[in-house]
Specification:
The protein is of the alpha+beta class. It has one domain: Hypothetical upf0131 protein ytfp, CATH 3.10.490. It has 3 helices and 6 strands. Strands 1, 2, 3, 4, 5 and 6 form a 6-stranded antiparallel beta sheet that branches. Strand 4 and strand 5 form a beta hairpin. The N and C termini lie far apart (34 Å).
């Protein structure tokens, strides 16, 4: 369990669903050379909304999103965590955050393996705006639209 104010102590994989997925522009910029493994996965309890060139994940019971489970190289973990927090403009406890980094369960491609992973979800105010007037990505897959 993460200690408040010190989330880096929990070295979990990351669940990525947008521009950090293989083939997307931020994958090479942020993940290349820093990962031990990347494998397909699905996260329940979230849905995707279209954003300005990237998607937002919004917590929603019954939703399912496709993405990748990314495990950082141990020696690159702290650097990668800081880089992804920077990319997502996330700072623990900052009320101006567009995203919050939370721990959720992800199912691997085999359908049976379940791991806990960090995922960036829309902050509450952003999520409320998206639910009110955002464009839902019904497939749950930003690659597939």
């Amino acid at each position: 369990m993460a200690t408040v104010g010190r989330p880096a102590e929990v070295r979990l994989p990351f669940f990525v669903y947008g521009t950090l997925r293989p083939g997307e522009h931020n994958h090479d910029l942020f993940l290349r050379g820093r990962t031990e493994s990347e494998e397909p996965g699905r996260m329940r309890g979230i849905v995707l909304y279209d954003g300005p060139g990237y998607p937002y994940a919004v917590e929603e019971p019954g939703g399912v999103v496709s993405g990748e489970i990314v495990t950082a190289l141990p020696e690159a973990y702290e650097e990668l965590l800081a880089a992804l927090d920077g990319l997502e403009e996330y700072a623990p406890g900052d009320p101006r955050n567009l995203y919050e980094r939370v721990v959720r369960e992800v199912t691997g491609a085999d359908g049976t393996t379940v791991v806990r992973a960090w995922v960036y979800v829309a902050a509450p105010a952003v999520a409320a705006r998206l639910r009110a007037r955002g464009k839902l990505i019904e497939s749950g897959d930003w690659h597939g639209g």
